Amino acid sequence: MASAARFAVKRQVVAPTLRLRLRANSSVCVVTTSYPGNDGDPAGHFVKSEVEELEREGHRVNVVTPVTGGAFGWPGSAFRLREKPWRIVEAAQWMAHARSEIRACQPDVIVAHWSVPCAWPVATFREFGDPPLEVVSHGGDVRLIAAMPNALRSFVAKQLTERASSWRFVSPHLLEKLVEVLDPAEVTKLRNIAVVAPSPIALMDVTEDVRARRQTLGGRPLYVCAGRLVRSKRVDRVIDYVAGHRIEQPVLVVIGDGPERARLEQLARRWQIDVRFLGNKPRRETLTWIGAATEFVHASIAEGMSTVVREAEYLGVKVTML
User: Fold this and answer.
1) 31-40, pLDDT tens digit by residue?
2) Which of 27, 66, 274, 305 could form a disulfide with 94 if both were Cys (CB 3.0 to 4.6 A apart)?
3) What is the number of structural domains in the chain?
4) Rounded alpha-carbon distances, angstroms, from residue 12 to 51, 80, 140, 182, 288
5) Domain carrying residue 242
6) What are 209-259's pLDDT values in tens digits?
7) Do 259 and 135 lie in a common domain?
């Protein structure tokens, strides 16, 4: 069993691009469509970590985020809009409300997590008095821009690069993915403001919880994966991978929920292996399962820089990427 130091609290500071623009006791407006509504909500906890870091430094932070449900919420806005296209009206209503919130806040700095729809069209309006705007891209927004028709993509990119003081990407891959689809002139403007920096995450000490969790498994190897149960996360590949270790009598714990759950449960039954679907869990419990894992398995094809992979690495757990 690993020592307690393995599970010590680790904290990443706010990205340096943002720090350069903050005076003491600044007013910061954080615009995001993904933010945890409670301890068991996995949505946007990395955004919350950044907000808490800013608050610890003495800044006044106002978070502008939609009420969970409608166009936004689990398992993601893309799925929810495909499920009920009329929810686009709710998305538009939130955008109008968000602009009003920013105007009332009169912030010194605006941070927009997800370039679309939080930076564009919400935070690019000059009516806010032109405070510095930091755009943060996590993955889905870059894929959305890349899928836009050429004319719309160029328009959105132009609006963002002309208004933003910096555009932060959580991984180099995301920046290059956007560069690939932009015209040379737009690429030049983007590179002038682009920064690659992962979002901050804060880990709690789960040493004792991990030790107790391992004892309940009786020495059986534990595999863990976590995330939304949607096709792009490829949890079926994780199940297939663990099934290849059946001689070891493995336990696979799947944390998260989504529209793919029934299909994945059926696949696990066909393999006749011990797969436990836990649904969404509070952050401490999620970290305990990850920390107790023999191996954390990740197969998503739609990530910028996976927070759960970083958490597993910080906890000293072997990570397998499929």
Assistant:
1) 999 888 776 6
2) 66
3) 2
4) 12, 32, 23, 31, 20
5) 207-321
6) 999 999 998 889 999 999 889 898 999 999 999 999 988 899 999 999 989
7) no
